[in-house]
Amino acid sequence: MPSSGQNEGGEHHQRLRETRLQKRKAAEVLPSSGDSSAAAAATTAATSAAAAAAAAATEGTGKRGRRGGGGAPKSPGGGSSGSSGSGSSSGSSSSSSSGSSGTSSSSSSCSGGSPCALESAANGCSSNHFSGRAPHPPLQQKGINAESKEDIIRSEIPKSVVKVFCTHCEPNYSQPWTTRRQTTSTSTGFVTFDAEGNHCILTNAHSVDNAAVVQVRRRGDHQKHEAKVICVGLDCDLALLQVDDPDFWDEIGPPLQWGPSPSLEDPVTVAGYPLGGDNSSVTQGVVSRTDLQQYSMGSCWLLAIQIDAAINPGNSGGPALNKDKKCVGIAFQSLKDGDTENIGYIIPSEVVAHFLEDYKRHKKYTGFGDCGFTWQRLENKFMRSALQLKNKQQGVLVKKVDGASFARDVLQRGDIILSVNGKKVASDGSVEFERGERISFSWIFAQLFVGDRCHLVVLRRGRQIHVSYQVERISLLVPATNELRRAEYLIVGGLVFVPLSEPFLKSEYGDDFESRAPVRLLDQWQHGMQQFPGQQCVVLTHVLAHEITVFAMLY
């Protein structure tokens, strides 16, 4: 692979796809706690392969979403696994049993597994019951001084931290007129204010994905209260819950206040309800990194904070608190393999604020902004010279403009992006970030809301021009998730048509669909971008018995 990164990016994209698929496989190997030993071994192998693939992908074409930009792949963390309720293929509930064996998971959440499977497996759970690893190192080994440690230990877990119980009913994408068996999971949430100042409960999207019933329980209480999901953001893995029962709010603690995003080495406390007990639990650690990561539920890259506090199944949706007991993030996923230990990720307050403000503006989730074009690094000096870049000029090359993006009206193939919203773009696609760090310029677009305008300085055939356009969400032709949370289909004369999506590929061809699915479908999955809003790739999946089809099959 040339050091300049001027290739077409095919091998780079393949490694990134394999990384994502390995991560998804790790999220599905533990449907119930009874298979924990095998799941832990499978998770270790999958995440090790994912880390190796990411380490190799250091050059190439800059991409968005599935063709992603950067950052190490990671296994998602989340709600702890409960028992699975058996049910008919139509989703009716009955007596409790241990999971739906013999079927391919088709959930569009966190790569196709139910949250209980996703979180129990992907985390590899650092408790001895799951992986036999040593307990989390003491605080003294993390650089937290004695005074800070004592303050953390003295502080109580806020009463506004609640336990979330969810019954999931996932679509069956192979037979879209049915659903999978119901499963259950537990996770964490906490009371906060939404953007309008109203009380609400904030948790992870994968904790309530495909929810049939959601209940919450206050800390120290025995009674569960029914909750309803009022907003879900898959890209940022966040969800808002509302409880109508006034008794729930009578004795709940005060809503958590938001604090600024922590700096490196700042101490944090993660509160939640992980596996290992029914009562609340806390783990402590420090901030070790801030970077863009691909969230396990979505297809875009957003800001994430890496901490060394243990994040185990059930911690998903729990607040990360600073020493002033202000929330600075939300636990949502972790990375664990044979070579890593205690690497967890929290959603920073900037991403949460964007989600809450989005709900305030539109009364629904509209997503994060996307640049609307495919770009390539310009680190090769000969390439830079051929494109008439001066010695100190930096930027990235536009390779393709999405047809469904407003960028198509102002950008052209071969343009060089010099700056975005006043921030200079380096030849590796990075911009200046906080405290001397650098981060991908895609974060500038992600901070915008759908419909906001971005302003670019572009070099076109040696001449510098200024352009602006409205940003839209990423427009993959084959979506990574199904936001409708139900399987779409159309039956005409016995012919069953479904839109092509990643959950469908996983359901129809298994976890390794990248090697089993037809090439023509994989080509759309890998390279397809919408040419107009709402465009879909439709697949004929079944031919049912019908007077038309039966007559045709006779000949």
From TrEMBL:
The keyword Acetylation does not apply. It comes from Eimeria acervulina (Coccidian parasite). Belongs to the peptidase S1C family. Pfam families: PDZ_3, Trypsin_2. This is Trypsin, putative. The keyword Hydrolase applies. GO terms for molecular function: serine-type endopeptidase activity. Keywords: Hydrolase, Protease, Serine protease. Residues 9-27 have a biased composition (Basic and acidic residues). PANTHER family: PROTEASE DO-LIKE 9, PTHR45980. GO terms for biological process: proteolysis. Residues 68-85 have a biased composition (Gly residues). Residues 478-550 form the Protease Do-like PDZ domain. It comes from the Eukaryota. Residues 32-60, 86-110 have a biased composition (Low complexity). InterPro entries: DEGP_PDZ, DEGP_PDZ_sf, PDZ_sf, Peptidase_S1_PA, Peptidase_S1_PA_chymotrypsin, Peptidase_S1C. Residues 1-110 are annotated as: Disordered.
